[in-house]
Specification:
By secondary structure, this protein is α+β, with helices and mostly antiparallel strands. The protein has four helices and five strands; from the N terminus they run βββααββαα. It folds into two domains: 110 residues, no CATH class; 30 residues, no CATH class.
């Protein structure tokens, strides 16, 4: 018996972060809807100026004269791929079950990304942009095959129960 597959031509791509409260400050972000799931990968977290200064101060690095681009450059030189977004990871790929028929329609955004319940059913951490991209694509491919059984298994393992 052949397992159902959602072809890549039916995947929907969004050029923004699909999760993480500080996702807007992540320079790396990929979000892809594959059937009923949203696969979101974020990383290279470059926080706003105040937090940049705090991180540099904790490292004992003089930042008082740095402003604008020079502050960004100093931060990037110190934290090559940004600040960790989780324990031991600078990038993370998460999978969320989308809310049927609900998409972002906020007046100031209206990006159309599907909304989700906020509880991930799968997570994988990585530490380089290439590994993050590979993790995103392999996760999309994984959930494109036999999706319903994979959602059920991942949901059970994560403790998530759909309404």
């Amino acid at each position: 018996m052949k397992t159902p597959v959602i072809p890549e031509s039916e995947w929907k791509w969004f050029g923004l972060a699909g999760h993480l409260i500080v996702g807007r400050w992540c320079r790396f972000h990929m979000a892809t809807q594959v059937g009923r799931v949203l696969v979101s990968t974020v990383g290279q977290y470059m926080p706003p100026e105040g937090l940049m200064r705090s991180f540099l101060e904790l490292r004992g690095i003089d930042h008082d004269s740095a402003r604008g681009d020079s502050l960004d450059h100093l931060f990037e030189e110190t934290f090559r791929n940004g600040v960790d977004i989780g324990c031991g990871r600078q990038y993370e790929t998460m999978v969320f079950i989308t809310e049927p028929g609900n998409v972002c329609d906020t007046a100031w955004c209206n990006c159309g990304i599907p909304t989700h319940y906020g509880h991930n059913i799968f997570m994988r951490g990585t530490n380089t942009p290439l590994d993050a991209q590979v993790a995103h694509m392999t996760t999309c491919t994984f959930f494109a095959h036999d999706q319903e059984s994979r959602i059920a298994k991942a949901s059970a393992e994560s403790g998530w129960e759909e309404d």
